Amino acid sequence: MIDHLLSHPPYLVVVVVIALGIYAMIANSDYFRALVGLMLLQSGIILFYIILAVRIEGTIPILGEGHAPLPVPHRIHNPLPHALMLTAIVVGVATVGVAMAILRRLGAEEGSIDEAAAQGPGAKAGGGRR
Amino acid sequence: MTSSNLPVLLFLVPFVGALACAALGWQWRRLPALIALTFMAITAGLAVTGLAIVATRGPLRTYMGGWQPPLGIEWVLDPLGSIMAALVGVLGLLTLAGCAPSIQQEMPRRQSLFYACALLLVSGLMGMALTGDLFNLFVHLELASLSAYALVAAGRRGAPRAAISYLFIGSIGASLYLLGIGFLYAATGTLNMADVAARLSASEANLQLTGIVLVISGLGVKMGLFPLHVWLPDAYTLGPAPSTTLMAPLATKLSAYALLRILYWVYQVDYLQHHAAALQVLCWGGALAMVFGGVKAAVQQDLWRLLAYSTVSQVGLVALGIGLATSQSLTGAILQILNDAVTKAAMLTAAAALLSGLGIRSLQQLPGLVRSHALCGAVLVVGGMSLLGIPPLPGFYAKWYILLAAIDARQWAFVAAILLGTLATALYVFRIVEMLYFTTHEPRPATRATGSPGALTTTVHAVALALALAAIGLLNGPMVTSLIIPALPRGLP
């Protein structure tokens, strides 16, 4: 698996982006920065699917006038992952939207959207935490 | 195998209902509840009809846009899916109808949005139960999860914090799942479950293995499998009572169902037998969840947090049933999904009646309850008995099947975990019983007006759910032979 990764540099980018995203989510006590981490993680996965679709020396899958007849299938970039990722992007945007709405409420309620800050004075008003 | 629109209608009816609630609900105070419950009633009716049709005439299929699989997206109402759809429809209707007074009390001005989110959750869960496409499953998983985050965030102080942790952890779970099906897609070039299953054996082993690991971890987060359950107790305790009453019975169970579906219908038994480590992980997670969740539940003071940890423990039993991979253990796992869903719905509805009627959240406030709210107390006890596994309640049969499967497989560690988990369950159930019936108490200070008409509605629904639980237990034999055995995957030992 590692050999495969090293011989296909684009996948290495995916690994780095996903790792950065997860690191940002774990290392930041500021929820907003963690949210940026989540967005990175999602972007990494989108990149993964898009790289899956690429065929070396391939062409775009468009038929019709003014376009050359399509070559054999393994020379056409796979359009399906692109369509899937459009949906995944929509899901990701919706997630970020819900997260921001929740963060706004959190900020209004506790005066901060930092996990560490609110563990202090605000935490006791948080009620049943453990 | 018949083509029909029913599978998609089961998703579309609550979805349109959600839009109607959000668009029209603000006009009149009682309108959102009316719209939501009407659409939920139609959904529940369709789901039960679907269960009957599938049991007599075989699976129903819908091809989206008329495209035949594997090119198009396929929706299948098969025996197992129809059980889950009926569960979601009926429990969704009963819990929402039961909680209508609490919803009015807890969020009088946001009712239409609450009902919209609740119906979106139901439609997402229906989609998870019925889709035959791996990517479509991801979309519905996220539809259900996003509604769930919003439902949690609507709660009292501290709820947004619980909701944002739930969102972060849940989104990592969803991302892992998405990455997992990416590997499956890379291996087979298709996303239709049946088609992936047919092509999987000819594909590259590393891709299959990475896929299964990512899918199990992703769905493990969503189903609250130990040790990935950390989001669950806070979300279910701090969220509003109606949200928890709707979510706790269904959301984790449907994720467990999705895992069952992918393991046994996509990867299939042969593959799992050659890669037993994947199932071992599931078994150990389940076994530890039973013990840990049970012990944590036994030390809680808050009734809602107790029930949340109890969910962790009971989902552990489902995971153990899925992981043992025999027809006996899977029968137990499906029964346990039914059992925990109906039990939690009954107990949480009763708890919601206590909360909205008397303002009771804590176990310490339970003594003296039996006089004024005898029925709520009785529902809590019946539910507790089913969690514990007292015959003839369904919890007994579920546990019995899984226990026998563990003994047959000579997995003594898991036998011990089931028994220890049951012991811990006994601790928290008997604490509830003790507080209800055997603790002396001072006369209850009149915190809120007792016997409000709303609490009565909620109590009636809690009692109906408890009766349904008893009925499932008493009709267990015919139900297993006519519904669950046909729903089992093929090729099981």
Detailed description of the structure:
The complex is a heterodimer of chains A (130) and B (493). By secondary structure, chain A is mainly alpha-helical. Chain A has a single domain, classed as Helix Hairpins, CATH 1.10.287. Chain A contains five helices and no strands. Chain A has helices at residues 2-7, 9-27, 31-53, 80-110, 115-119. In chain A, helix 2 (9-27) packs antiparallel against helix 3 (31-53) and helix 3 runs antiparallel to helix 4. In chain A, 24% of the residues are buried. Residues 120-130 of chain A have low confidence and may be disordered. Chain B has 493 residues and is an all-alpha fold. Chain B has one domain (3-443, 450-487). Chain B is 78% helix and 2% strand. Chain B contains 19 helices and three strands. Chain B has a three-stranded mixed beta sheet. The longest helix of chain B has 34 residues, at 241-274. Chain B is globular, with a radius of gyration of 21 Å. The mean pLDDT of chain B is 89. The chains are: A mainly alpha (130), B mainly alpha (493). The A-B interface holds A 1, 4, 18, 22, 25, 31, 34-35, 38, 41-42, 45, 48-49, 52, 81, 84, 87-88, 91, 94-95, 98-99, 101-103, 105-106, 109-110, 118, 125-129 and B 135, 138-139, 142, 146, 149-150, 153, 156-158, 160-161, 163-164, 167-168, 171-172, 174-175, 178-179, 182, 185-186, 191, 206, 210, 234, 237-238, 302, 305.
Average pLDDT level of chain A: 81
- Integer count of domains of chain A: 1
Q: Helix tally of chain A?
A: 5
Q: What ranges of chain A have pLDDT less than 50 throughout 5 or more consecutive residues? A: 120-130
Give the overall pLDDT of chain B as a whole number. 89
**What is Rg of chain B?**
21 Å
What is the number of E strands of chain B?
3
CATH architectural designation of chain A: Orthogonal Bundle
Cα separation of the termini of chain B: 26 Å
Number of domains of chain B: 1
Please provide a brief summary of the model.
The complex is a heterodimer of chains A (about 130) and B (about 500). Chain A is an all-alpha fold and about 130 residues long.
